[in-house]
Specification:
Length: 340
């Protein structure tokens, strides 16, 4: 059985990656439509060995279509996602708009696939924040074994999380550093990103945390367990693709580092690369284009009774966005649509 699939925002980084992954994973597509804003009308994008031309999102009729992937930001989702959902098309939304709506499931298929069943309340499923998605894939199997009490995470997030503008700014500023006659003032970011790190992603809240940090807290609770305490520091780094996270975990029960490695090796979506030698770990450059969430540097934390540290790396355009969305569609097809 095949499905009629729509990709909204098909000219953006995430939209293009969704098309790549749909093709790579042989998602059963009978018919596909690629949509963008009117200014991108007719722009060509690739889907496997096919070339597709973008249609105008504002004029598109979603009636009769099965699944729509939305990668157009919260403003666009607010306007068009309800229209698609009302027309009977299940929306998988990559923006933050619906993530905290109690009637919209927030899904990471390796963690809470059963949550997909709640899609029918709004006909919408939310895709989590990129930094949350990779972290909860690593947390869930450990939580099932020893119950997580508290997580302290510091992120090292690539500029592709800001879209093409962030990638261009890093590229232009890097070139300018080597050209004494030119300079590129910050535009996407508040400070220079080339050869620098910026402890500021999204807006500041009254609490002093940024919204990105708040997202990691709220989404981890919704996806894994509301009892888990989470504190995060989110940092933008001069890396084009691939988010990294240093995660400190406190458990209710003792969990030996060797057992933790074994649990993670058997867990879906995870690849453990953890050798205590030069290069025996994964960095962002090595994760680009891969489906896995990589875990390295697993070790006991001797400063607390039941603690572990680990290093987690993933391609944020894939597991942090497009891949997770396609996996949601696969789960939806298997659990719901195929049984209609």
């Amino acid at each position: 059985m095949g499905y009629k699939v729509v990709v909204c925002g098909a000219t953006g980084n995430v939209g293009r990656e969704m098309l790549n992954i749909l093709a790579e994973r042989d998602f059963p597509v009978d018919e596909i439509a690629v949509l963008a804003s009117r200014r991108s009308l007719g722009t060509e994008v690739s889907f496997g060995d096919r070339t597709l031309k973008c249609k105008d999102l504002a004029q598109f009729d979603f009636a009769g279509w099965d699944i729509a992937f939305f990668a157009i930001g919260s403003d666009g989702s607010k306007e068009y996602a309800p229209k698609a959902a009302k027309a009977g098309c299940v929306v998988i939304d990559n923006s933050s708009l619906y993530r905290y709506d109690r009637d919209v499931p927030l899904v990471v298929p390796e963690v809470n696939p059963e949550a997909v069943d709640g899609y029918a309340k709004r006909n919408i499923i939310a895709n989590p924040n990129c930094s949350t998605a990779q972290m909860v894939v690593a947390l869930k199997p450990l939580h099932d074994r020893a119950r997580i009490k508290r997580v302290v995470v510091s992120t090292y997030q690539s500029v592709s999380g800001s879209g093409k503008g962030g990638m261009d700014e890093l590229w232009d500023q890097t070139k300018a550093v080597y050209n004494p006659t030119s300079s590129v003032e910050p535009d996407v970011y508040t400070k220079q990103i080339a050869f620098n790190v910026i402890p500021h992603i999204d807006v500041f809240l009254d609490s002093g945390e940024t919204k990105e940090e708040w997202k990691m807290v709220a989404e981890t609770k919704k996806i894994v367990d509301p009892a888990i305490k989470v504190t995060a520091t989110c940092v933008r780094v001069p890396v084009f693709v691939g988010h990294s996270e240093a995660i400190n975990i406190e458990f209710e029960d003792f969990l030996d580092e060797d057992e933790a490695r074994d649990i993670l090796r058997e867990a879906p979506g995870i690849m453990v690369v953890d050798k205590r030698e030069d290069g025996g770990y994964v960095t962002p450059v090595e994760c680009v284009g891969d489906f896995a969430t990589f875990v390295s540097r697993v070790r006991q934390d001797p400063t607390i009774e039941n603690g572990l540290n680990l290093w987690c790396v993933s391609d944020n355009l894939r597991k942090g966005a497009a891949l997770n969305a396609v996996q949601i569609a696969e789960t939806l097809a298997e659990r719901v649509l195929s049984k209609r």
